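Q: Protein A?
A:
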Amino acid sequence: MRLTSRVTIAAPPDRVWPFVADPELMSRWNPKLIATDRTRTGPVSRLERYTLIYRLSGRPTEHEAEVIECSPPARLSIRLRDSRRRHPSAVSAVETYELREVADGTLLIQRLEIPIPLLLRPVVWFVHRFGTPTDTPYLERLKQLVETGSTRAACVSS
């Protein structure tokens, strides 16, 4: 199932890019991301692997991350696999960020492809589409950080 969110940010793509490509900066706007275990710092690079710990359903859950596409400052795709499921055929999610330059800044599109049983898909879609957030939506947090902050990082491509 694919869930899509979008936001327009009053900044050019190269200023938005570090916030989606650097897991340390991502943790500033995604409250579910509580820790990162990487051998390097800054934006990720293609084929890089590292570990992320999310707080899901109230408890820490470790995920193996693999960058499957990295085209700064336009597109980033990361495959996430629950570390408890070691089998190669274990289901994984793919998180993709697409940054498009528009007249008033950057249109950021986030797509999350997640394995959800067929019978639950209508419920998840309905909640995602019509549910009322109990807190500031994540992409709105990102928008606020970019528009008010000055954090910059070099883009890495390979």
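Q: Protein B?
A:
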Amino acid sequence: MITPTLDLHPPDTGDLIFSDDFSDPSQWVLGQTASTSIALGNNALTLALDQPGGYLYTLRKSPTLVDFSLEVTAAPSLCRGEDEYGLLLRVSSAMEFYRFSLSCDGYVRLDKYLKGKASSPVPKTLSGAFPPGAPSSARLAVSAKGKEFQFYINDEYQFTVKDPSLLEGSLGFFIRSAGENALTVSFSNLVVRKVPLN
């Protein structure tokens, strides 16, 4: 029996839903405190925190996404060890979501937060598709169609997840500090497209 070859590249995508050069502050939840900052500048959205064990996120205000394919560049400038950054997907009004994480020591994972409980459909796994540490840069890609997600980093396939818990929601970014050090990550060149029907 011949096993078909797994397509390890992001799938062909359809018409543009929207692109974001991060120049419009009305589309994002921005803000600053003594130890955190979410700001736009130089065509990027930058999340920064100087807080041991801190967590910071922002959500795009529109649109609500159902089936989609997205790409975005993530560029940590201060990041080390188990510090994490990445995407929040299908975020509901009740703050239920999927979280695609890259860690600064080279691991990836997928977490789900649903009905007050956290789980990891894909536990921490060494990737090899992006450079650890900072400064660095990686192109993240996700295809979401119904209950199936496919995840890529720098055009390299990472994993597929089938989970029907959340079928629509908003999009966001996050960073999480695992230690005592400051953490800064910028996101740029966001493109979201329709998923082909076939």
